[in-house]
Amino acid sequence: PNVIYLKDYEVPAFLVEQTELRFELEEDQALVRSQVRYARNPESSNRQHPLLLDGHESLELQRLSIDGEVLSEKDYRRVGEQLSIPNLPDHFTLECITRIEPQNNTALEGLYKSDGMFCTQCEAEGFRRITFYQDRPDVMALFETIVVADKQRYPVLLSNGNMVDAGDEDDGRHWVKWQDPFPKPAYLFALVAGDLECIDDRFTTASGRHVSLKIFAETKDLDKLDYAMTSLKQSMKWDEEVYGREYDLDIFMIVAVDFFNMGAMENKGLNIFNTSCVLAHPETTVDAGFQRVEAVVAHEYFHNWSGNRVTCRDWFQLSLKEGFTVFRDSQFSADMNSPTVKRIEDVALLRTAQFAEDAGPMAHPVRPASFIEISNFYTLTIYEKGCEVVRMLHTLLGAETFRKGSDLYFDRHDGQAVTTDDFVQAMADVSGRDLSRFKLWYSQSGTPQVSVTGEYDAEHQRYTLHMRQSCPATADMATKQPFLIPVAVGLLDAQGDDIPLTGGQTTEVLECVAAEQSFVFDNITVEPTPSLLRDFSAPVKLRFPYSREQLVFLMQHDSDGFNRWDAAQQLAVGIMSELVVDYQQGRTLVLDSALIEAYRQILNDASLDKAMVAKVLTLPSEAYLSELAEVIDVDAIHQVHRFVKDAIATALAPLFLQVYQANTSAEEYSPDATSVARRSLKNLALSYLMTTEQPEYLALALQQFKQADNMTDSQAALTLIAHSGFEAEAAEVLASFYQRWQSESLVVNQWLAVQASDPKPDALARVEALQQHEAYDASNPNKIRSLVSVFCAQNMQNFHNSDGSGYRFLADQIIVLNKQNPQIASRLLTPLTRWKKYSAEQGALMKAELQRINNSGDLSRDVFEVLSKSLA
Ligand code: DPP
Ligand code: ZN
Hints:
binds zinc ion, zinc ion binding, globular, hydrolase, zinc
């Protein structure tokens, strides 16, 4: 497979004025007729350039004609994924008829059929599985689409834009014509045909446009769409208020699909969603599920501007739309819920998973310089780190200037396909700042490290922060220049109050731009405790030599909520890392009482928000401890985690019980922030209590399991009981849960995930047995993720079993999936790719499985790229 480089970018030889599509959908095939009006691109240097069309090998080309003249095979060349037509005039219409087999499309890219319905997924390069086309985002065209299908089986026929005509044919078939008035790249094309129902609502935009809102699903799921509709209307309003962005069509549709590789897709006017990101109901959806629906609905809606109206020039610019849109949806979720909690959750994800990506073989910059398969780059770096980069611009410029910059960006580039440089340029233009150093965040990979020390000069009442930044080599890039790192800083006095800094503000954003730099604060009358990187102002690893007392002090006093949580994390990480060494050297484990006392304080502090208490009292995850470790000792980390949790639980059991009882309420379920916070604290308390394996707490959990009127409480209890040593009860609750929910596919997925993440030693055997269960479907990505991915990525203890059985299992799955669904196969590989972070013996076992996959023959581009980088 070829490597594609950003530096090789060339404008397309032809532009498209209009794309007309006609789909004849049948049970054993689909015929696609495209009529495309081309014009030579005046910006293309070569006037003789042939037309290069992308077309997947699975396309059966039935007819090709130029301005009505049928081409014969000598008039074009088809090699691999490319069709090349030479000797063309400056303007012409190309007609093309292809035959495809959606019913056999297991990759779920392009047009495919699942659960009796047709749907599409074209981002990034799925359109080339539908017809021959310049399948690249800088070719934007007006689309008109006619869909023809059997009326009884497929009463609903949808595509992008507005429905302009419809009719019946005499053979029981019907057709609908859709017109999209906005030019778009092929990756935003969508089509849906099925027996669906919808809920309806409307929204009136700020300028008075009436928009019809429809969310489609199978009849059985119609009662689970209200939350998505509410979230959609909130998103539309929020984007008007915060970004001045209005919706631009008369109709906005969402369709729920159970077979989907991604979470959701922002096709113009016709978003297609994985059921897991749109269906929500108190009885079947946990709190985190409601929040996911709210966030993803917002994310896809926000793409209408950041992605669709202004799109990407090429796929190296993917973060142009994704980073910005994730930033927008994170601001939205923060506004709808608790900003500090949202920030903590985002940073926890970034620090565990994105930092690990930077440290692994697939490390790449936010704007990659090359790729083999773009599907492999829908990554935490593009999305989450990309969001952090936009957030830093927001921090450096301030909200008001940032808004001016986004207005300028949208105005300047409406209807265009642009680059991350264009985005930064708009921000530079409105702020008058030179952002060239800032742009290194887009072009350099890796997680910068910032070491900070403080120096107090009592005589001159001066406090100095010395900063040293560096960025370790990554798999793709050896050396890096210093970044522009915004470090938000506060200084606490002995009482824990903020000391006023420049201009009386309590937080100052320092800009660290050199490898070594010092920042001086004057008029500091006592030696302060610094609060650094407030609200996680940059995606870096910052180190300051805090004592444990200082961390406890920050936990109790920092006015920055994020840093209070982070101080608790740092305290626990420090203590647990020492215990890991003790465990490895066979010493008896003893928990520093500082942690217990700090936790006790937090539990007793009635002034704190419950969601914050729950976050602060959540120990650093095993995955985060693994990311921080030089060499990952899975067993030591797991045992230490258990030990610490158990020691805290034992010491504070009466308090946890009180908290549990105080937060058990009979109110009707609601997914609002206050209720979510209450449940999260209650269920955290229950999880500590269950760690002690005392029968009295098992009784509590069983009671909660039986009485819960919502999935959050029910699933929390289920997980705790299923993962406990009370094996009879575990079997009982798992059986009764399945009995009750077997007809709810998404709930069954949770049931699979609970078993796949069970730390008890027989988990792999269970997972293998579940693959044969009636509830499992090896062609459904959600099922694969719930069972196989959860086992391999979250059940560290069992996946990394020293006999290599977990690795063998995963390799076997990938060898099958490589042919069936390459995108999912390549995703699943991730845990094995990190082999260099484990002991020599374990690493060798992992590497051997990578090699076995490599030798299994006929690798997809997706799997090939990840494998070759992992074995390099
Ligand atoms: N559907 C994916 C997303 O919205 C890719 N665009 O992030
Ligand atoms: Zn997106």
